[in-house]
Amino acid sequence: MHRIRIGFYISPAITVSLATVMYGDYWLFGIALFLAYLFAFLIGLPMFVLFKKFRWLALWQVACGAAISGLLASLLLFGTGTEYARQYGFNNMLLVITYAVITAVIFWFIGVRGNTALTNH
Predict the structure, then answer these.
(1) Residue 1 · residue 52 · CB < 8 Å
(2) For the chain, does the N or the C end have fewer beta carbons within 10 angstroms?
(3) CA 105/CA 79 separation, integer angstroms
(4) What distance separates the 2 farthest-apart alpha carbons in the chain?
(5) How far is CA 16 from CA 24, 75, 117, in A?
Protein backbone atom coordinates (compact mmCIF):
# COMPACT_ATOMS: atom_id res chain seq x y z
CA MET A 1 0.00 0.00 0.00
CA HIS A 2 2.99 2.28 0.45
CA ARG A 3 3.65 2.38 -3.30
CA ILE A 4 -0.01 3.19 -3.97
CA ARG A 5 0.15 6.17 -1.61
CA ILE A 6 3.34 7.39 -3.24
CA GLY A 7 1.71 7.01 -6.66
CA PHE A 8 -1.28 9.11 -5.60
CA TYR A 9 0.98 11.78 -4.12
CA ILE A 10 3.47 12.02 -6.99
CA SER A 11 1.64 11.33 -10.26
CA PRO A 12 -0.55 14.50 -10.36
CA ALA A 13 2.50 16.67 -9.63
CA ILE A 14 4.52 15.02 -12.40
CA THR A 15 1.75 15.53 -14.95
CA VAL A 16 1.18 19.17 -14.00
CA SER A 17 4.91 19.86 -14.02
CA LEU A 18 5.31 18.35 -17.49
CA ALA A 19 2.34 20.30 -18.85
CA THR A 20 3.59 23.52 -17.29
CA VAL A 21 7.04 23.14 -18.81
CA MET A 22 5.60 22.06 -22.16
CA TYR A 23 3.24 25.04 -22.46
CA GLY A 24 5.27 27.58 -20.50
CA ASP A 25 2.26 28.79 -18.53
CA TYR A 26 4.05 28.90 -15.19
CA TRP A 27 1.49 31.22 -13.65
CA LEU A 28 -1.11 28.42 -13.95
CA PHE A 29 1.00 25.87 -12.06
CA GLY A 30 -0.62 26.42 -8.66
CA ILE A 31 -4.18 26.33 -9.98
CA ALA A 32 -3.50 23.29 -12.14
CA LEU A 33 -1.80 21.47 -9.27
CA PHE A 34 -4.73 22.18 -6.95
CA LEU A 35 -7.24 20.92 -9.53
CA ALA A 36 -5.13 17.85 -10.33
CA TYR A 37 -5.02 16.79 -6.67
CA LEU A 38 -8.67 17.69 -6.14
CA PHE A 39 -9.82 15.46 -8.98
CA ALA A 40 -7.28 12.74 -8.16
CA PHE A 41 -8.74 12.36 -4.70
CA LEU A 42 -12.41 13.09 -5.45
CA ILE A 43 -12.65 10.97 -8.61
CA GLY A 44 -9.44 8.96 -8.95
CA LEU A 45 -9.29 7.49 -5.46
CA PRO A 46 -12.87 6.14 -5.43
CA MET A 47 -12.33 4.81 -8.94
CA PHE A 48 -9.13 3.06 -7.83
CA VAL A 49 -10.97 1.45 -4.90
CA LEU A 50 -13.68 0.24 -7.29
CA PHE A 51 -11.13 -1.05 -9.81
CA LYS A 52 -9.20 -2.82 -7.05
CA LYS A 53 -12.37 -4.52 -5.88
CA PHE A 54 -13.12 -5.82 -9.38
CA ARG A 55 -9.42 -6.53 -10.05
CA TRP A 56 -9.32 -4.19 -13.05
CA LEU A 57 -5.71 -3.17 -12.60
CA ALA A 58 -4.20 -3.85 -16.00
CA LEU A 59 -2.62 -0.80 -17.59
CA TRP A 60 -5.27 -0.52 -20.30
CA GLN A 61 -8.08 -0.80 -17.72
CA VAL A 62 -6.57 1.92 -15.55
CA ALA A 63 -6.07 4.14 -18.61
CA CYS A 64 -9.68 3.65 -19.73
CA GLY A 65 -10.92 4.42 -16.23
CA ALA A 66 -8.80 7.56 -16.22
CA ALA A 67 -10.30 8.65 -19.53
CA ILE A 68 -13.76 8.31 -17.99
CA SER A 69 -12.72 10.21 -14.88
CA GLY A 70 -11.06 12.87 -17.07
CA LEU A 71 -14.30 13.25 -18.99
CA LEU A 72 -16.21 13.68 -15.74
CA ALA A 73 -13.68 16.23 -14.45
CA SER A 74 -13.74 18.15 -17.73
CA LEU A 75 -17.53 18.26 -17.72
CA LEU A 76 -17.38 19.73 -14.23
CA LEU A 77 -14.79 22.29 -15.33
CA PHE A 78 -15.92 23.24 -18.83
CA GLY A 79 -19.51 22.10 -19.17
CA THR A 80 -20.81 25.26 -17.57
CA GLY A 81 -22.48 26.83 -20.58
CA THR A 82 -20.36 29.97 -20.43
CA GLU A 83 -19.02 31.64 -23.55
CA TYR A 84 -15.51 30.39 -22.74
CA ALA A 85 -16.82 26.83 -22.41
CA ARG A 86 -18.65 27.07 -25.73
CA GLN A 87 -15.60 28.46 -27.51
CA TYR A 88 -12.77 26.38 -25.97
CA GLY A 89 -14.58 23.65 -24.06
CA PHE A 90 -14.02 20.73 -26.40
CA ASN A 91 -10.28 21.32 -26.79
CA ASN A 92 -9.87 21.79 -23.06
CA MET A 93 -11.92 18.69 -22.36
CA LEU A 94 -9.60 16.65 -24.57
CA LEU A 95 -6.60 18.08 -22.71
CA VAL A 96 -8.08 17.20 -19.31
CA ILE A 97 -8.85 13.65 -20.49
CA THR A 98 -5.30 13.31 -21.85
CA TYR A 99 -3.77 14.59 -18.61
CA ALA A 100 -5.96 12.21 -16.60
CA VAL A 101 -4.73 9.26 -18.66
CA ILE A 102 -1.09 10.38 -18.36
CA THR A 103 -1.51 10.75 -14.59
CA ALA A 104 -3.07 7.29 -14.33
CA VAL A 105 -0.30 5.68 -16.38
CA ILE A 106 2.33 7.30 -14.15
CA PHE A 107 0.36 6.13 -11.09
CA TRP A 108 0.16 2.61 -12.53
CA PHE A 109 3.93 2.43 -13.07
CA ILE A 110 4.61 3.70 -9.54
CA GLY A 111 1.89 1.98 -7.52
CA VAL A 112 0.48 -1.00 -9.39
CA ARG A 113 3.06 -2.51 -11.74
CA GLY A 114 4.75 -5.41 -10.02
CA ASN A 115 2.99 -4.72 -6.73
CA THR A 116 2.41 -8.18 -5.31
CA ALA A 117 0.01 -6.79 -2.69
CA LEU A 118 -2.39 -6.03 -5.55
CA THR A 119 -1.77 -8.90 -7.92
CA ASN A 120 -1.42 -11.97 -5.66
CA HIS A 121 -4.85 -12.51 -4.16
Answers:
(1) no
(2) C
(3) 25
(4) 50
(5) 11, 19, 28
